[in-house]
Amino acid sequence: MPQFEVQEVDYSRYSNRQLMAVPLAVLLVALLIIGGMWVLTGSPANLGVDFSSGSELTVDTELSSAEVAEAFDEPVVSVQGIEGGNYVVTFDTANVENVRNTAHDIEEITVLGSGNTSPIFGDENKRWALIGIAIAFTGMSILAFVLFRTFIPSLAIVLSAFSDMIVPIAVFNLLGLKLSLGTVAALLMLIGYSVDSDILLTNHVLRRSGGFYESTYRAMETGVTMTVTSIAAMAVMGISATFFGIELMASIGLILVIGLTTDLVNTYMFNVSLLRWYKYEGVAR
């Protein structure tokens, strides 16, 4: 039976600056991408119809999801399969009457229902999504400072979680993908994943017996195994969802794969460098 083994890294070969360079560079590029999007569009990310005005149709058809998307002249945001073999087709336009008329002209499609998202409702969704992320991030930050009661280790956990959320948003902007309420839920999940691996590392280094490198490797054996397993599971989910035309699950899987991969870099490069500095050169010396 194949077994996943975590290779021991010789951290003594690298300075703290070398370890911090890659994760900080990735974060800086992500912030520049998000900042550029904000300047150009007035929003830090591509927003789906959950956060803007749009319309949707529930249709009955024998066509595939790709064929349904191609059948409309209006911009189709997503085609999601639902129970009973039907589809919910989402459009990047608030004029639901136009898309209904177009659907009625397509012989292979029967419209079962329609609706739209008003700008007011989209703004309300944005507000509550931001509140939810702010509450989760603040709670995570307070937990980190309460657990360790020292600034540098706690700061490392907070910065890592911040980067884990920022990088996937930047990648979505580059790919032209749009955020929805479901993908915001995935960002909230990333906070939990990030805190889990970072607290595991910090706890081993500061509170367990053994030297710094020994403690770091013990944390890596558990933390890397958990994260890589999660990445594999989310990748399978994303690929399967793409195959079956479930766009929301595919987007959630992609965000989690990107965020968890970023977390590996942040935890075992950025956090390790800060913890090593704290233990040997900082206030803990």
Mind sketching the topology for me?
Elements: H1 16-41, E1 54-61, H2 65-71, E2 76-81, E3 87-91, H3 96-104, E4 109-117, H4 119-148, H5 151-175, H6 181-207, H7 212-243, H8 247-280
Antiparallel strand pairs: 1-3, 1-4, 2-3
Biggest pleated-sheet summary: 4 strands, antiparallel
Task: Provide the number of structural domains.
Answer: 2
CATH class of the largest domain: Mainly Alpha
Tertiary shape: elongated
Rg on CA atoms, Å: 22 Å
As residue ranges, the low-confidence spans are: none
Can you tell me the CATH superfamily of the largest domain? Multidrug efflux transporter AcrB transmembrane domain
Quantity of strands, as a count: 4
Termini separation (Å)?
Answer: 44 Å
Average pLDDT level: 84
Class derived from helix and strand content = alpha+beta
Helical percentage = 55-70%
